[in-house]
Inverse folding.
């Protein structure tokens, strides 16, 4: 089920997903994000679980929230317990460049 106005989502993704048929397919499947994901803090029983690698993959073309993410990015780039990667795509990279995202994730798992 779609979040709402498929035409509006189709237009919103026009520059990020150039293939008309695929973009429409994505727009038809958009669903809402639960509001508490923005307001409710994540609580971890162990902030740095042993043996679990922590990685931040930044979509470098996302500039809308760059100022908000700048302090996080600066910290993670140099944090010894984090791996930081950038990919030259927007936030919709899993939809617009799935092979490249899969390759990045595969490289990270090696």
């Amino acid at each position: 089920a779609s979040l709402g106005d498929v035409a509006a989502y189709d237009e919103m993704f026009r520059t990020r997903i150039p293939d008309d048929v695929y973009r429409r397919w994505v727009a038809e499947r958009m669903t809402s994000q639960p509001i508490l994901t923005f307001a409710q803090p994540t609580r971890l029983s162990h902030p740095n679980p042993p043996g679990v690698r922590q990685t931040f993959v930044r979509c470098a073309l996302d500039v809308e929230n760059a100022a908000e993410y700048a302090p996080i990015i600066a910290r993670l780039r140099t944090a010894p317990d984090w791996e930081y990667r950038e990919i030259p795509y927007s936030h919709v990279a899993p939809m617009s460049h799935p092979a490249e995202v899969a390759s990045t994730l595969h490289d990270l798992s090696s």
Observations:
- The helical segments are 6-12, 20-28, 36-39, 66-78, 93-96, 98-109.
- The radius of gyration is 17 Å.
- The first strand starts at residue 54 and ends at 59.
